[in-house]
Amino acid sequence: MNRAELLQTSERYGTPLYLYDLAEVRDRANELLAALPGGTSLLYSLKANPLLPVVAELRGVGCGAEVSSLGELDVAVAAGFRAADVLYTGPGKSRGEIDAAIARGAELFSCESETELDRLGAAAADAGRRVRVLLRLQPGDRPASGLSMADGRQFGLTATEAVRAWPAAAESVELLGFHVYLGSQLGTVEHLLTGFTCAKAVVDEVVAGTGVPPRIVDLGGGFPWPYAAEGVGCDLIGLREGLTDLLSDWAESAPRVWFETGRRPTAAAGTLLTTVIDVKERESGVVVVVDAGINVLGGMAGLGRVLRLNTTVDNLSAADDRPEVAVDVVGPLCTPLDRVAARTPARKPAPGDVLRVHNVGAYGATASLTAFLSRPGPLELVVDGDEEVGAWRIDARAVPVTG
Ligand SMILES: *Cc1c(COP(=O)(O)O)cnc(C)c1O
């Protein structure tokens, strides 16, 4: 959409408004699929954006699905995935959650610990069903080369635990292989390849210990895209060749290889439109109060632990010749933490102007502090090019469960 169309849309629906374009989802997904070696699969991590038409679109281009809650499983099934094909992940699956997932038809789980292996085996036996399991492995030592990844020590089994657990586990569940996830936002093809090499190494270490070749290896992802700032993720030139080379080592055992992505196909598809409520000009700078705070954008700031303040905004209402100033953009919540952008340049905002935030199709609406301050959730409008698909609104009010 061009600037005029975006402004029209913000008037028609009001702000704060998330706008997702399925055409962009398709393009970004196809681009990534083309950069992966033939014969491998790509799972979409619903965590990034669980809105039904987005998930259905990714199924349409050939992605699988990776979920980590019953809610995400329900969306995946509604989007057309078979529950049995969905990879169910997450570090804290209770017996109740596992039973409920199995009851919905799930049978493929990423297993996080020896305790969980017992739990999965017992749940399967009691349900009279089989479960298929990938053991999630902790990557070993981090590669030195500038990879910045979240501390993942709470996830998965160590290689030693996995080797120890394998024989007994193979009796209670169908052990298919391994799942390794190094982290998000591996910024370049070189970083991605280093990450996948590291993931492969821990798999090889466990296989050397068990002597059993895996049938499936999920090597994770980390395919990058900027969050809430203009720009694009690294190009993927050389990824396919690098991965083909890496995987040629497994040519003989020939496990099926999977990758995962959340933000890469969804981030660029999402735009946030927000209206300027107030502007305060101070010696220390211009403070712009908008109607989208951390309840709408980035309580998690793209899975950083703290709000990142590198957001950029684009003033759609201001003529190009309006001077640029550095602005602090804050939301409507009664807390000094409600800051959306700091010291970012924008054509000088005035009350009523509509600002655009780019690249918020992933970890936007659902990764925010939606219930904080009891404001209505943002509207989420989905289009496919020129065609409108539908609108949704997250409702996070407390509902009574007793009394
Ligand atoms: C969060 C997560 C993803 C998706 O990460 P992106 O950076 O959005 O691609 C994939 N796999 C696992 C296990 C995750 O936790």
Automatic annotation (TrEMBL):
Record GO terms (molecular function): diaminopimelate decarboxylase activity
PANTHER family documented for this protein: DIAMINOPIMELATE DECARBOXYLASE (PTHR43727), GROUP IV DECARBOXYLASE (PTHR43727:SF2)
Family from the record: Belongs to the Orn/Lys/Arg decarboxylase class-II family.
GO biological process: lysine biosynthetic process via diaminopimelate
Pfam families xrefs: Orn_Arg_deC_N, Orn_DAP_Arg_deC
Tagged with keyword Cytoplasm: no
This protein's record includes keyword Transmembrane: no
Protein name: Diaminopimelate decarboxylase
Catalytic residues (positions): 334
Alphabetical keyword list: Pyridoxal phosphate
Domain Orn/DAP/Arg decarboxylase 2 N-terminal span(s) in chain numbering: 23-264
Modified residues (N6-(pyridoxal phosphate)lysine): 47
Cofactor(s) named in the record: pyridoxal 5'-phosphate
